[in-house]
Amino acid sequence: MLTATIPTVVARCMGQFRLVINDQQVAHWRAGKARALFQYLLINRGRLVHRDRLQEVLWPDSCDRGSSSLKVAVHAVRRILASYGADEDFTLVHQDHGYLLRAEGVWVDVDEFERAFQRGRLAWVAKDHLQALEWFRRAAELYTGDFLAGETGDWINEQRQWIRGIGQRALTTLRADALEREDWPEAMHWCRRILDLDPYHEDTYQTLMMMHGELGELGRVRDWYELCRIRLRNDLGIEPTDRTERIHTSLLRNRARTHLVAVAGAR
User: Fold this and answer.
1) Quick one: 153-266 is in which CATH superfamily?
2) Considering the entire predicted model, what is its pTM?
3) How far out from the chain centre does Cα 203 lie?
């Protein structure tokens, strides 16, 4: 049984960013860059970040590295944390031309997500597949949306792609397990989750077509094929692979042939 104790400070970076301190959600961040600064230092907490790097992250188009804007944002972060009584949980230190965020007893969903996947991977290597699948399900539960959804920045995009990759590997393993057990509804659920992460994952469309073909749902076979074809063509400028075409054609042809044989036999 996987359990987690929720501390007094909870930070959620999957989907829309939320910071909850003592059951109160931080809604106002005063200075415009205060929230962005806190997000970056939170992900890099425990590590000293040079002020030039922070300037680059927060003001990528600015050439003025001596601006006081960073100090203003730092001051705003400190005031916000103090106003919510988080002084004992967070300490923002100025050190060696940079800043370091110390955090004690803070729960961050991204960390829990990566930890769950890593434990699942280690359990899988150790051949404890049931435990591994439990950890992968935990990772899937924590993936409630893209990292800092709706926000931009080179470091955010890099982190977002990294987390998507981890999520996709966990979901693919869960899908494979459901397929092996021939639990089609669960396998379809994981397929849909994979497509939420990567709408161009052609292997997942192939799997969905084959499952619906197994159930005799030819309309759904055609629907998934068309959605795959449209997305690949319109968004990426490519056509489905030969394997996708063969699966689609074979499923419709074989089912049609089975139907004709059945009708002839009845007659």
Assistant:
1) Tetratricopeptide repeat domain (1.25.40.10)
2) 0.85
3) 19
Residue 267's identity, in one-letter code, is: R
Residues 221, 252: contact at Cβ < 8 Å?
Answer: yes
pLDDT tens digits, one per residue of 89-142:
888 999 888 999 998 889 999 999 999 999 999 999 999 999 999 999 999 999
Does CATH place domain 9-104 in 1.10.443.10? no
Q: How confident is the model at residue 260 (pLDDT cuts 50, 70, 90)?
A: very low
Q: Which DSSP string do the residues of 91-109 spell out, in sequence order?
A: EEEEETTEEEEEESSEEEH
How far apart (Å, rounded) are the C-alpha atoms in residues 267 and 264?
Answer: 5
117 vs 124: CA distance, rounded Å:
10
Distance CA 72, CA 37 (A): 11
CATH 1.25.40.10 residue ranges of the chain are 153-266
CB atoms within 10 A of CB 147: 24
Within 8 A by CB and 6+ apart from 185, the residues are none
Residues 6+ apart with CB under 8 A from 138: 2, 116, 120
**∠149-85-150 over CA atoms, to 5°?**
5
- Relative to beta strand 106-108, strand 9-12 is parallel
Q: Is 215 helix (H, G, I), strand (E, B) or coil?
A: coil
DSSP state of 20: E
Residue 103 bridge partners (DSSP): 90
Residue 12 has which token pair?
Answer: 């959620």
Residue 65's contacts (CB-CB under 8 Å, 6 or more residues apart) are: 51, 52, 55
